[in-house]
Specification:
Elements (H helix, E strand, L loop, with lengths): L3 E5 L4 E3 L2 E4 L5 H14 L3 E4 L8 H11 L4 E6 L6 H14 L4 E5 L5 H6 L6 H20 L4 E4 L4 E5 L13 E4 L5 H8 L2 E5 L3 H15 L7 E6 L2 E2 L3 H20 L10 H4 L8 H10 L4 E2 L3 E2 L1 H6 L7 E4 L1 H13 L2 E6 L4 H29 L1
Parallel strand pairs: 1-4, 1-16, 4-5, 5-6, 6-9, 9-10, 10-11, 11-16, 12-15
Antiparallel strand pairs: 2-3, 7-8, 13-14, 14-15
Helix pairs in contact: 1-2, 1-13, 2-3, 3-5, 5-6, 6-7, 12-13
């Protein structure tokens, strides 16, 4: 099982501990992040989507234009574009980029945020719609003749996409969600199931549930884990760096927030319990302690209400690589990593972390082959 690293290209410079600078679409920043991560060895980058953000497919198109090798993981929310059209949009970008596109289906676990875009379905209804959406998308990508599709949410008559994905194996579909409604959809559709940075026990349990949900379809998805590494040349310095990040994040929240999303419905809820299962799982981990397993750090998740990828691994590059290999042994082959100082951290990861993990994975595979 090979290992893949996914970075992150925000639309502007910002994090939990860095106040936003630049416009809503900061083109020089986007280009710098994409080129830097390509240069230091990331395989692809996530292009995020929110209800008040710039459009992810168009951001991805520009990233593909200014890079040569870097893959894309386009966050895409079903329900706002017809699936036939979305399939052709993604396939068109895949053709221009010569097979560098993946799509991350963001079903949406927050009713308030979805309402900003005029979507008032319940979470369970959104997952049911997403399943139909992906049924149609895959047929648009693969059908060699016009097809019909009759579902509750989509009714396609003689649909057909003339533009297909660049590669014969198509466009990889990433999918997340840990609720009872999400798991069956993930089992049916996910090529890669995406988790946030949970404890070893949580990851082991959720990987098992997804594999069981995928088995009736004869599918064997890969797994992706999202984390925020904090690196330094000694463990003590790494934890001091984490404490500085936490202090900056607290100060920024006290001053009104990072300025990333001034109309963000999630931020407007304040300290209300998170509406999605993924955040609740991170907060359950945080309730166990600030430092879990070997190097898992939960304080930013606790501070922010686990609004997204917010747990870290803290230590030297060798220690963090060791922890990532532990997750690899649990079945994770893709790591989505991004920093709290996004550009600086991405370069550090490429120089100090990615090569170490790849060496460990090669050695582990060789050991298993020998055994």
């Amino acid at each position: 099982m090979s290992v893949e690293f996914i970075g992150y290209v925000g639309h502007f410079n910002s994090s939990e501990s860095v106040r936003r600078t630049g416009p809503a679409v900061d083109v020089p920043y986007i280009e710098a992040m994409a080129k830097a991560q390509e240069y230091v060895g990331f395989d692809r980058v996530l292009v995020a989507f929110h209800s008040n953000s710039a459009e992810s497919v168009l951001i991805g198109q520009h990233i593909a234009h200014v890079t040569e090798r870097l893959g894309l993981m386009i966050a895409h929310r079903p329900g706002f574009t017809q699936p036939t059209l979305a399939a052709r949009q993604l396939a068109t970008l895949d053709q221009f980029s010569k097979g560098r596109v993946a799509v991350h289906i963001i079903t949406g676990g927050d009713d308030a945020e979805l309402a900003q875009d005029g979507d008032h379905l319940t979470k369970d209804e959104r997952y049911a719609r997403a399943s139909e959406y992906l049924d149609v998308v895959r047929q648009e990508w693969t059908a060699t003749a016009p097809f019909d599709y009759a579902g509750k949410y989509y009714n396609v008559v003689r649909g057909y996409g003339d533009v297909k994905p660049y590669r014969p194996d198509g466009i990889p579909v990433f999918f997340g969600g840990a609720s009872a409604a999400a798991i069956p959809v993930a089992g049916k559709h996910a090529d890669v199931y995406a988790l946030w940075g949970e404890t070893y026990d949580q990851v082991r349990e959720l990987v098992g549930r997804i594999r069981a949900a995928a088995a009736p379809y004869g599918r064997s998805p890969r797994f992706s884990l999202s984390l925020r590494p904090v690196l330094a040349d000694t463990e003590e310095k790494a934890w001091a760096k984490a404490e500085d990040i936490l202090a900056r994040a607290k100060a920024l929240r006290a001053a009104g927030g990072s300025g990333r999303s001034p109309n963000n419905a999630r931020a407007a809820r304040g300290d209300a319990p998170p509406p999605n299962e993924g955040s609740r799982r991170l907060l359950a981990a945080a309730a166990q302690g600030k430092r879990l397993d070997k190097y898992l750090w939960t304080e930013i998740a606790a501070l922010t209400g686990a609004q997204g990828n917010s747990t870290g691994l803290v230590g030297t590059p060798d220690q963090v690589a060791e922890a990532l290999l532990d997750y690899y042994d649990l079945g994770v082959s893709t790591f989505l990593i991004r920093g709290f100082d996004p550009l600086e951290d991405a370069i550090q990861y490429g120089q100090e972390l990615l090569p170490r993990v790849r060496e460990l994975v090669v050695a582990r595979k060789a050991g298993r082959s020998a055994a």
